[in-house]
Amino acid sequence: TLRQQALTDDLTGLPNRRQFRQQLAAALDAAEEHSRPFAVLLLDLDHFKDVNDSFGHATGDDLLVMAGARIRGLLKPSDLLARMGGDEFACLLSDLSDRAEAEALARRLLEALQGAYRLQQQDVYSGASIGLALFPDDSDDLDALLRYADIAMYQAKLAGRGSYACYSPELDRRAHEAMQLHARLKEALDLGHLRLHYQPQVDVVDGTVLGAEALLRWQDPVLGEISPARFIPVAEATGLILPLSEWVLETACRQIAEWTRQGRPLRVAVNFSALQFRQGDLPQRIARVLERTGAQAHWLEIEITESVAMAQPEKAQEHIAEFARMGCRVVLDDFGTGYSSLAYLKTLKVSKLKIDRSFMRGIPEQPEDVTISDAIIGLAHSLGMTLVAEGVETPEQLGFLREARCEAFQGWLFAKALDPEALTQIRAQGRWVPPPAATDLH
Ligand code: C2E
Ligand code: MG
Ligand code: MG
What we know:
It is a single chain. By secondary structure, the chain is an alpha/beta fold. The chain has helices spanning 2-7, 17-30, 48-55, 57-74, 99-114, 142-158, 169-191, 228-238, 241-261, 274-277, 282-293, 306-311, 313-326, 342-347, 357-361, 367-382, 395-404, 420-428; strands at residues 38-45, 80-85, 88-93, 117-119, 122-124, 128-135, 164-166, 194-203, 209-220, 224-226, 267-271, 300-305, 329-335, 352-355, 386-389, 408-409. It has an eight-stranded mixed barrel, surrounded by five helices. A hairpin with a 2-residue loop joins strand 2 and strand 3. Helix 4 (57-74) packs antiparallel against helix 5 (99-114). Ligand C2E is lined by residues 199, 215-216, 227-229, 232, 245, 248, 271, 273, 333-334, 357, 390-393, 410-412, 417.
């Protein structure tokens, strides 16, 4: 009937947003002072747009139907599941004993949605982000509960997709801050207020500059200098990372071409984000930027974090092999902080590992850090890879690296990230002699 149609979603046959609101209103009306708590759970599929773009809308539709069925399968009969529109679902979890019960369900849902979907003879991966708001703890108002669950979901995305978050006033404040940061960052990008600086990577033995890592710098007129460690996660969560990364790659390649024209070419490492790495046509995009800017592929080094590479092993393998064919080198960043499968590492066409800065901090005092760094260096060499150590601040750390036969380092001991002119100057100065280690002074 028409009445049913107005309350159900055509594609999945599930209740729609309108019916969800009606039933939530009814539940709130019926609730009494000592009613059991209930939860509003909002769920958003991760990377749904990618699936639509790469496999077509029919496949996207199938994914929505299958995801709906997986969710329904984990709910109690008395729970309500609705499709709110797009790739967003909502559950009304009634009759809970406590918050922990809702959280446990959220974890089971995330797990169930992460597995591969067999669609049109292909395995498609999606996953989800979940936000939770509880009656009566968080609010007894319909719109507030929905808004709070939405804020929590946004926070879950911010924390890295594939996770859940519960609403809290603190989280509200953080979400607000992130939205403000997003707006200002977008403006900075549009107005050309972002800068790319270059941190030298230096030969451990003779102090020559072997390359440089491109690092974003953003000076906001109101908020001051903001670290990429703060704004990159926000850009990842909102999708702004894609146009932002496009700008970074374009700028770095223009700089490569410029240094080549000056007769002093330099290898530049560019950081690639998780979202960027998911783009099926990333190699073609890079090829176009190289062509447009006149930069040669072998001066461009593609830096991805260990966790990005391990999160999507097949895609990573494909992309990395393609980059190698194009002539770009690939480096695994923040190595040692993720969970690499060593068997898998062997199959990746990666030419270099970057030892995470957290290991340098404890060198030479912490025996664990010494042991781990030694082991990483040995591992890389046995796989035919070279290494760069990050975050080298003291002559002692450099001494350790020299002894351990790590090829290169990057860190404040030599220089912070510099603007292109400053880097050109440093390279013109010739040989660098490290300051003596404290122990040498005695
Ligand atoms: P990362 O790629 O691991 O970059 C190294 C970070 O270590 C940089 O921080 C660098 O300034 C810092 N660092 C270098 N030497 C030292 C040192 O001796 N001591 C200490 N304490 N720190 C040192 P930064 O510039 O704040 O960047 C943070 C992260 O933001 C980067 O970590 C990278 O993951 C991300 N990022 C920066 N620029 C970009 C970009 O253009 N695209 C993407 N996707 N991510 C970027
Ligand atoms: Mg990096
Ligand atoms: Mg790093």
